[in-house]
TrEMBL record:
<dbReference type="GO" id="GO:0019213">
    <property type="term" value="F:deacetylase activity"/>
</dbReference>
<dbReference type="InterPro" id="IPR000286">
    <property type="entry name" value="HDACs"/>
</dbReference>
<protein>
    <submittedName>
        <fullName>Histone deacetylase 10</fullName>
    </submittedName>
</protein>
<dbReference type="InterPro" id="IPR023696">
    <property type="entry name" value="Ureohydrolase_dom_sf"/>
</dbReference>
<dbReference type="InterPro" id="IPR023801">
    <property type="entry name" value="His_deacetylse_dom"/>
</dbReference>
<dbReference type="GO" id="GO:0040029">
    <property type="term" value="P:epigenetic regulation of gene expression"/>
</dbReference>
<feature type="region of interest" description="Disordered">
    <location>
        <begin position="354"/>
        <end position="373"/>
    </location>
</feature>
<keyword id="KW-0378">Hydrolase</keyword>
<dbReference type="Pfam" id="PF00850">
    <property type="entry name" value="Hist_deacetyl"/>
</dbReference>
<dbReference type="GO" id="GO:0005634">
    <property type="term" value="C:nucleus"/>
</dbReference>
<dbReference type="GO" id="GO:0016787">
    <property type="term" value="F:hydrolase activity"/>
</dbReference>
<comment type="similarity">
    <text>Belongs to the histone deacetylase family. HD type 2 subfamily.</text>
</comment>
<dbReference type="InterPro" id="IPR037138">
    <property type="entry name" value="His_deacetylse_dom_sf"/>
</dbReference>
<feature type="domain" description="Histone deacetylase">
    <location>
        <begin position="11"/>
        <end position="305"/>
    </location>
</feature>
<keyword id="KW-0539">Nucleus</keyword>
């Protein structure tokens, strides 16, 4: 008979079946390429684990029950049964198959739904339901086989992936970020090194980021605040070649382990905010998640964003709570010496503190009394799946290198009103197109602003347009600019939830392409992706044609507006337009 320590009973096979069934039921599975799984080889497992550990695990299929129980006793909160070695090899193999598919460009991104999970397992030890460290092996594999120089691992599971931390703590090529329920070391795995002051060792100092949750009941606003003020500024500065996500969904509402209050739709935004990194190369690998309802919803929200569908903002976003503000402050101080992107932490806390005070105490006494099964939350809202992701208004006779949907040719661009009004209202508000790019010969801010005024009157949804006139000259202070976008513009935008984003690029602003592209990509998280891009550049420019729905227009007669509509994204490549 199978034995299992009571701690493990939540890690059940239904976790995978309900997730997959939800993907099929919602039609998301049909939009995905499914990748065959395989067993990992010894060599691949040895990228992270020791020979003696691997040899010991190899014996488990042939152990008697008492030997198996003895073997298990030496580890914490993990169970072995005769078939778990096979399953653990499949979990690693599936992860590596996903890494192959993303690194070769066969797919842009993807998710590996695997059991057993991995992020607690260590060089020579199993731990917390984990046998082999799927994500750690994936990172080493990507670096060895594909020459990935820098790998970012984002661990949004509610437990600290100490196994990943130990594996890379002295390695500056792997940036490990984890938030986790900590409660001042009173929550499993109760480790001192899970706190914010574990920043990495020797050459790896600065490349390990721990954000402890010292209270339960964390909400969407808390998660976004940590992304905006801790993870994203560093991730953009790190500039990874690949993003791996230890996608544990026990950080969602209803989970018996996490006891948090963030709703499943938050994972749509966490995923979106990571998709602009590494040219969109993102591999999500399932870790935890034990409430089968919130797990399935969270998986679907993640996959739908990976497919490029825009997401409505979660309801009533505000600032982070007091406890999170302290954690943010502590971890930013601990990392200040390693990273240049650093808003004066005082400014950040001052603004958010004010908001935090306004927040009613969100201590979930009530939540703690209810059992996890009794906790209910609204189904995530239905999401747009526009048949065309981007449309462009092109001058006559200019072909676009991609299958753009052409809007009816607008009047002479001198009358911006009609142009943007016509283009915008016909397409965006009808929801048939997600974004509009309108290129103009003449771009005068005052017209744009007045057009915005007009648009506000006309559009059915109340538009608080986030109208950005790009500031920096050239790429000199990209870090500073990105910090302003991440630390100020995005939090504001998410809080004010505009109905439309109007992105204005002044001629000659000289902003380098990558910044413009990042900005365009990040702002698509607002207004369900309804973005109106008005821009003009002089003369020939290099365009980084990457899978983030990129626009460019060029003055003079031979305009080219390029962007990516089709869902299977091209490899990033440089195209010179003359
Ligand atoms: N209340 C019972 C105590 C359970 N203590 C062990 C928790 C293990 C968590 C595993 C996980 O969720 O982090 C993973 F992603 F690895 F699966
Ligand atoms: Zn977990």
């Amino acid at each position: 008979s199978r034995f299992c320590s009571p701690a493990c009973k939540i890690e059940v096979p239904e976790r995978l079946t309900v997730s997959h069934e939800a993907l099929v039921r919602t039609g998301l599975a049909a939009r995905c390429v499914s990748i065959a799984v395989r067993e990992a080889t010894d060599e691949e497992i040895l990228l992270v684990h020791s020979e003696e550990y691997l040899e010991a695990v190899k014996k488990t299929p042939y152990m008697t029950l008492e030997d198996l129980m003895a073997f298990t006793q030496q580890y914490g909160d993990v169970y072995f049964h005769p078939n778990i070695y096979h399953c653990a090899k499949l979990a690693v193999g599936a992860t590596l198959q996903l890494v192959d598919s993303v690194m070769t460009g066969r797919v842009r991104n993807g998710i590996a739904l695997v059991r057993p999970p991995g992020h607690h397992s260590q060089k020579s030890a199993a731990s917390g339901f984990c046998i082999f460290n799927n994500v750690a092996i994936g990172a080493r594999y990507a670096m060895q086989k594909y020459g990935a120089k820098r790998v970012l691992i984002v661990d949004w599971d509610v437990h600290h992936g100490q196994g990943v931390q130990y594996c890379f703590e002295d390695d500056p090529n792997v940036l490990y970020f984890s938030w986790h329920r900590y409660e001042h070391q009173n929550f499993w795995p109760n480790l001192r090194e899970s706190d914010y002051d574990s920043v990495g060792k020797e050459k790896g100092a600065g490349f390990n980021i721990n954000v402890p949750w010292n209270k339960v009941g964390m909400e969407n606003s808390d998660y976004l605040a940590v992304f905006f003020h801790v993870l994203l500024p560093v991730a953009y500065e790190f500039c990874p070649d690949l993003v791996l996500v230890s996608a544990g969904f026990d950080s969602a509402i209803g989970d018996p382990e996490g006891k948090m209050c963030a709703t499943p739709d938050i994972f749509a935004h966490l995923t979106h905010l990571l998709m602009n990194l590494a040219g969109g190369k993102l591999c999500a690998v399932l870790e935890g998640g034990y409430n089968l309802t919130s797990l399935a919803q969270s998986v679907c929200q993640t996959v739908q964003t990976l497919l490029g569908d825009p997401a409505p903002l979660p309801a009533d976003l505000g600032g982070p709570c007091e406890s999170v503000l302290k954690s943010i402050h502590c971890v930013r101080s601990a990392h200040k010496q390693y990273w240049s992107s650093d808003l004066p932490a005082s400014e950040l806390s001052a603004k958010s503190l004010k908001v935090a005070e306004q927040k009613t105490g969100n201590e979930p006494e009530a939540q703690e009394q209810r059992s996890p099964e009794e906790i209910v939350w609204p189904e995530p809202p239905k999401r747009l799946c526009p048949p065309v992701r981007t449309a462009v208004a092109l001058p006559e006779g200019v072909a676009c290198p991609d299958a753009c949907k052409r809007c009816s040719s607008a009047e002479a661009p001198s009358s911006l009103y009609s142009l943007s009004l016509h283009v915008l209202c016909e397409c965006v508000c009808a929801g048939s197109v997600c974004r509009i790019t309108v290129s103009l010969y003449i771009l005068v801010c005052v017209i744009v602003c007045r057009a915005v005024h007009v648009l506000i009157c006309v559009c059915v949804c109340v538009c608080v347009c986030v109208c950005v006139c790009l500031a920096p000259q050239g790429c000199s202070d990209v870090a500073g600019f990105m910090q302003a976008v991440l630390g100020l513009l995005l939090p504001l935008g998410y809080e004010y939830n505009p109905g439309l984003v109007l992105l204005v690029r002044m001629p000659g602003s000289g902003v380098c392409e990558s910044v413009w592209q990042q900005l365009a990509g990040l702002l698509q998280g607002l207004a369900q992706g309804h973005t109106l891009v008005l821009m003009q550049v002089r003369g020939p420019v290099w365009v980084k044609y990457s899978p983030v729905n990129w626009w460019m227009c060029i003055q003079d007669q031979n305009w080219q507006l390029c962007k990516c509509t089709n869902s299977c994204y091209q490899q990033a490549e440089y195209i010179r337009y003359s």
